[in-house]
Design a protein that fits this description.
With 416 residues, the chain is mainly alpha-helical. The chain is built from 17 helices and no strands. Its main location: membrane.
Length: 416
């Protein structure tokens, strides 16, 4: 039972990012979510069989209660939705984010909790890292005008199969379908790789150190090629937390080494991605936005300026449906109820926005105060539980009567 569940969870982490298929209505998300649904159904069956056979009574933890409260908020938002069909199955084309997909993710979580062997956590991380390597190598040729997806689906090794909205030579998206999604995916795996790199420092094998260091370089290069500022910001926050924990737990010299890595990352980022527009746009006035958007006749409106307009509409939408929002995944429909006039003066005046491009505002607009509050509480709960578990593990390590090096290895193994 546990072996089968382990295989399925590993398959989820390995195959989901890689799955693309040209014979459906959407190349990327739709096919991935169907695979997730299939795996979640199998895991649900295994979970029910396990609980029934062993006559187990599930004990709800604090985190389980938070998840169920969040699920309840999504159910209520679906009941009062302006389009229940969309709220149940998700926005057309991808079917991700709807009530069914949320239930699928919760099913996967519960299956891992009751069926999975915790000793296999590191193998899961390595599976995800290996899959990310394939994703990067699949996307790299497109950066130089030789997209492998075009070759797979059309037989032509170039970037000609993509529409004007897709430019893999400018912003890499590989098998994820969107640069920001690829950037976020790689940022998470970068932190996994950083964990194994730090862990390899305590191992005599020089080969492991080199392998993990090369992976970090490859991964970060992929993030740079996406030109996703949000992914880079999230990565730096993650690394900052990582450094903070290491300064507290281990020798200062290792912390200095990590700071050197961060310095290199910042240097490459400053020379690769322009953050100045993002920083100045945060403090710009609405008048400045109008000035920027009126320039669409001579160029493309800056993406951050457009997002500020969409965010304004999302806030108005949340205010219009304050309690439960317009309904899960209904932003594409409801945004037109409150769409700011300034959006018509941008280069993307005819684009369909199915997300608010800010997850918090998106939850407020589509699930109201109830949805955003439960979502924030869930996130806070994750942080509380993470630091609580870390503190308990640290206390256990201090109680072990082992040598200092052994303690370091145990700490690195348990910290995840």
């Amino acid at each position: 039972m546990k072996k089968l569940s382990t295989i399925i969870v590993n398959a989820l982490l390995f195959f989901t990012p890689l799955i693309v298929f040209s014979q459906t209505s959407e190349l990327f998300e739709f096919n991935k979510i169907i695979f997730i649904y299939i795996c979640s159904i199998i895991l649900f069956g295994l979970l029910i069989f396990k609980l029934t056979a062993d006559k187990l009574k599930p004990k709800l933890s604090f985190f389980d209660i938070l998840i169920l409260i969040f699920l309840l908020s999504q159910i209520l938002s679906t009941i009062f939705s302006i389009d229940r069909h969309t709220s149940i199955f998700g926005y057309y084309g991808r079917f991700n984010g709807g009530l069914v997909s949320i239930i699928a993710y919760i099913t996967i979580y519960l299956s891992i909790k009751y069926l999975f062997i915790l000793n296999n956590v590191q193998s899961l991380l390595k599976t995800s890292i290996f899959s990310s390597i394939l994703v990067i190598f699949w996307g790299l040729p497109g950066k130089f005008g030789y997209d492998l997806s075009c070759f797979l689906f059309t037989g032509q090794l170039n970037n000609g199969c993509w529409t004007n909205q897709f430019h893999p030579d400018q912003r890499m998206f590989s098998t994820l379908g969107q640069p920001n999604w690829l950037g976020a995916y790689l940022a998470v795996n970068f932190l996994f790789g950083l964990f194994f790199f730090i862990r390899s420092i305590n191992i005599k094998s020089r080969c492991q150190k080199i392998v993990w260091f090369l992976y970090l370089i490859l991964n970060f290069s992929g993030i740079l090629f996406t030109r996703s500022r949000s992914s880079l910001l999230a990565l730096f926050i993650g690394i900052a937390i990582f450094v903070f924990l290491h300064f507290i737990r281990i020798k200062r010299s290792l912390g200095i080494g990590i700071l050197i890595i961060i310095g290199l990352l910042i240097f490459v980022t400053v020379n690769g991605v322009d953050f100045s527009k993002t920083i100045t746009s945060v403090f710009s006035s609405k008048k400045n936005i109008s000035t920027q958007t009126n320039k669409f006749n001579v160029g493309v409106t800056d993406s951050f300026d457009i997002r500020q307009i969409v965010w304004e509409g999302a806030i108005k939408l949340g205010n219009r449906y304050p309690l439960f929002g317009s309904g899960v995944e209904t932003f594409a429909y409801a945004y037109y109820f409150v769409r700011p006039q300034s959006h018509n003066l941008t280069s993307e005046w005819d684009y369909l926005y199915n997300k608010a491009h800010n997850e918090y505002l998106n939850y407020y607009a589509t699930t109201g105060v109830v949805g955003i509050v439960t979502y924030i509480i869930l996130i806070i709960g994750v942080f509380i539980l993470s630091f609580s578990n870390l503190s308990r593990l640290s206390l256990k390590i201090k109680e072990l009567n082992k040598n200092e090096v052994k303690n370091k290895q145990i700490y690195n193994n348990l910290r995840i």
